Amino acid sequence: MTRALDGAETAGALDRYRERAGQSLVGGLVALVGGVVVGVLPGPAWTGDVVAWAVGLGVALACVGAGALVTARRMRAVLAAGEWSAHAAVPVARRLHSPAVVLASPATGELWPLTVVAVRWRRDAARPGPDGTLWWCGDPRTGGVLMRPHSGELFRAKPVRGGGARRRVVGRAVERGLPVSAVSAAPSGPQSAAEGTAPPSKPHRRNRRGRWRRLVLASVLVLAPAVPWGLASVDDPQIELTVLSEGPDGDCVVRWKDPWDGRERTGPFRCDPDRDPLLARWETAFVVSYGPWKGELYGWVGDERHGSPAQDVTDGLAAGGALGLLAGLAGGGVSLWRRRRRRRGPSGPAGLPIPVPATVVPLGTPSSPAYERLAALAGRQPAPGPRRPEADVRSAPWWRVRGLRQVSGLNGLLSTAACCALAGGLQLLPLEGYERVYLFGLGGVSLLFLALWTFRFLTGGAGAARLLARAATAPVPVVRRYALLYDPRDDTPVLVLFPAHGGPDDLPEAVLPLVPPGAQKNPRLGLPPSPTGTAELHGWLDRTDDGQPVVVAWIDDRPLWPAGPYRETGTAEVTSLLNRLAPPPLPDPQTLP
To answer: Whole-angstrom Cα distance, residue 492 to residue 490?
Structure first.
């Protein structure tokens, strides 16, 4: 028996699951310890709220991470003891419970209702693959592990509790048309290379290159106000105060003359209760000369600083920005070194790189699935729902078209700009010091995201939107047949294109990935209701940096905005995508030599 854990794809998916769980646990413990330390140290009154949020967030993250580590240990035990098998599957959503999935036994046709154990933002990745199947390892009576074919994501599943709930879930799956007839035609599960079969594809490596760049940019944006504020704090003017009233604990009401506009102001302040009685009506303080706290008072009673939180916020921003900048530069340097090392590849006898021929699959090889098979797989996908119409790009400017605003990043730019304006407007209200700190934090985060969205919009988003608008309105379209499928890795919709006039044995000509037109909750809304048909390809006027044409597909008199260029078959990248969309059946182990 070939254990499921022997496959490279399965082992890599389990390692990534454990890595995410460890990161959540460590992040929770850091937030928890940081909140406790800040709570022990002396500080202004508003730090109590910060400590409460930090401790609560730390406990939540730590619990999630610890639970995920326990789940990873259970999945490892199941994968080490069993083997993968492919099952026809139908997902079933439930309102008050975690989503369920119903598997059909390939041997007896028995239906197994299972509950998917996953956090909310990972549940969509547990849907069946393009062929309507899921890989399963375990016992349906006690639980096991699920994986969408070639997705590299593992999920723990357990039986649905309660006889009534099981019958309802199975009934809904049957109503949705559980393809029991497809069980016998389902492809085999992954097998190890030791048995002579083709090894599974390498797990998808998430690109961490942009993560370090964004961390450096965020740190620079955090340091941008902290550095001038820290320099300005050295020149804060010291003024004299007139004490109007004073409590026994030192809390008093004072009057002073503003050093900038000369007006007299009155406000609360903490006086030194141990000062000389001759100075009962007199006190000194410093006035903040920068930022949103300009004009606020602060001073010292012994070694304790009190008054405006400007210096505390400035010190926190400076420390966080410096640590983030160091971490981003160090991580980016290590990532760059590793990337260059991988590019050089293995070395020959004299330290020269060994030439590796490019992997190109000629058009028409048996590895390319035919139209009949891809159309059958596309027909098994649930039909996407309709979506409200958008402005016609042929008669409206591109920034009025909802899909192009999404492509360019204009929606995010406008949303963050509105948040910045709201935070700035609230700063004009008469607020307490801690309330201003909260609003300043909201405004700082909004400014950070506004800078990121602005950078994306100016450096490529607006240009890409104009380029797509030009392609969508180009004359003389090219007609092609299509099959609409979804990449198992990230659920991206993909148009597989075929000659306009042909038969069921035609091989794909090209692929065109699409931008999901729906919202984040249901990204498939707005896709063509028919998974197969004909599309008009407009464009062909512009090309990308690697020479690929920019094409926009029109289906049912509506454009579908591409997420990448039009790529013809024959390259390793397109062949790998086609194999994920329609996984080839692996040979029967009994027929292997």
So the answer is: 5
- What separation in angstroms does the CA of 500 have from each of 8, 513, 537, 565? 40, 19, 11, 20
Q: What is the pLDDT at residue 368?
A: 65
CA distance to 111, 146, 386, per residue, from 167 (Å): 10, 21, 31
Residues of the chain with pLDDT under 70: 1, 40-50, 96, 119-126, 129-131, 177-210, 338-368, 431-438, 584-593
The whole-number pLDDT of residue 122 equals 67
How many residues appear in the chain?
593
Q: Which residues of 8-29 are buried (b: 16+ CB within 10 A; e: fewer)?
A: ebbbbbbebbbebbeebbebbb
Query: Model confidence over 146-165: pLDDT tens digits?
Result: 988 877 788 888 888 888 88
What pLDDT does residue 124 have? 66
Whether 123 contacts 157, CB under 8 Å: no
Other CB atoms closer than 10 Å to residue 120's CB: what's the count?
A: 8
Q: Which pLDDT score, from 0 to 100, does residue 229 have?
A: 81
Is the entire prediction scored with pTM above 0.70? no
Helix (H, G, I), strand (E, B) or coil at 287: strand
34-41: long-range contacts, CB 8 A cutoff, minimum separation 24: 34/58
Quick check: 388 and 382 in contact, CB under 8 A? no
Per DSSP, what are the bridge partners of residue 285? 239
CA angle (555, 558, 564) in 5-degree steps: 75
Q: Closest Cα partner for 220 from 312, 310, 291, 320?
A: 320
Cα 324 → chain centroid? 20
CA distance 385 to 324: 43
- Cβ burial 169-193 (10 Å sphere, 16+ → b, else e): bbebbeeeebbeebbeebbbbbbbe
Beta carbons within 8 Å of 388's beta carbon, 6+ residues apart = none
Backbone angles phi, psi at 144, to 5 degrees: -170, -155
Question: Counting beta carbons within 10 angstroms of the beta carbon of residue 132, is it exposed (0 to 12), middle (13 to 18) or buried (19 or more)?
Answer: buried
Distance CA 37, CA 43 (A): 11
Contact 398, 392 (CB under 8 A): no
List for the chain the helix, strand, coil content (%; round to 5): 45, 20, 35
Contact status, residue 343 vs residue 335, Cβ threshold 8 Å? no
pLDDT at residue 513, as a whole number: 92
Instruction: Name the one residue in this structure whose structure tokens are 């098994």.
Output: 380
Identify the pLDDT of residue 279. Answer: 75
Name residue 234's amino acid.
V
